[in-house]
Amino acid sequence: MGVSMKQMSLLVATLGVLSFIFGVVAENKKPASGIPISGKGVVICKYPSDPSVALGYLSVIFLAISTVAGYYSLFYPYKGKSIPQAALFQSKGFLIFFNVAVATAGLAATMLLWPIITEQLHHSQNIHRNLETECPTAKTGLLGGGAFLSLDSCLFWLVALMLADNARADYFEESDDKVAGGIQATA
């Protein structure tokens, strides 16, 4: 039994919401700064144990799976009927929302990965020769912004899926009309 459009939309929405939730929780759990410990000619930054890096990576993973599922859902042959991609991209609305979904997914991934990688580097490279360092963390707000963009991306994939459904209906209606017209012309 094949997958229905409703099932695919629920999958894309669930994955997008999970990405959003993990991103927001990662932003909220991120420490404001580390604790500087002075040593002989160096400062060692001790950061409290926090799950922000792991939650951020989970957010990125769910964003990637949501994006792949959203892309796949647009071109999946529902009810065993496939449609040429050119027929889908003839719809201007579909083309716009498809491109916006891809762009927001890329921007969300960038805004999620940037602070996650920065935070991970701060945790691993915590010995500083600058004796006045303040033990920084990644920029505040980027994880939350990336989480909201992840949710936006998910919603744009859903709108593109609805527009793809409309384009599929139009395509098959035109195909049925051509077949019916051909039968009447030969009768």
Describe this structure in words.
Helix content is 71%, strand content 5%. By secondary structure, it is mainly α. Helix 1 packs antiparallel against helix 5 and helix 2 runs parallel beside helix 5. The longest helix is centred in the C-terminal third of the chain and has 45 residues. It is elongated, with a radius of gyration of 24 Å.
Layout of helices and strands:
Blueprint (H helix, E strand, L loop, with lengths): L4 H25 L5 E4 L4 E4 L5 H24 L9 H5 L2 H33 L2 E2 L13 H45 L1
Q: Can you count the helices?
A: 5
Major β-sheet annotation: 3 strands, antiparallel
What is the mean pLDDT? 89
Radius of gyration: 24 Å
**Number of DSSP E strands:** 3
Strand order of the largest sheet: 1-2-3
Give a short overview.
The protein is mostly helical and 187 residues long. The chain has helices at 5-29, 52-75, 85-89, 92-124, 142-186; strands at residues 35-38, 43-46, 127-128. Strands 1-2-3 form a three-stranded antiparallel β-sheet, with no helix packed on it.
Characteristic terms for this protein:
187 residues, 5 helices, 3-stranded antiparallel sheet, single chain, mainly alpha
